[in-house]
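Subject: Sanity check before I submit

Could someone independently write out the structure tokens for this chain? I want to compare against mine line by line before I put it in a report. The sequence has 117 residues.
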Amino acid sequence: MMKRDRLFAPHYRYYVREMRIMAYTQLLESYRSLTVQYMADAFGVTVDYVDQELSKFIAAGRLHCKIDKVGGIVETNRPDSKNWQYQSTIRQGDILLNRVQNCHELSAFSTIVDISV
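---
Independent answer below. Compare away.
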């Protein structure tokens, strides 16, 4: 239906890819690790297809997991939200500190320039 729709057809591949990423993410959130075979069975595709898809999405940074090809296991490594929050706070603090320093330098410069002639 979407493939034939005049408005959705150009975006069909993008939409389907995003839905696959969401489905993989939802399944991976429930487990610390699971087999590639289990994922293939869950989605009704081959192990090779799941392996290729996961490899692409992991390399693109869209999925947070790693594949053990020898053991056939997918292990999740979710990013720590507290670490992200800490990094964000540090970054915002640095920006604020730079702005305060710039304001101080401007005020010091303006007092020097304000000398009456």
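---
OP: Matches mine. For the report I'm noting this point. The chain has a mean pLDDT of 87.
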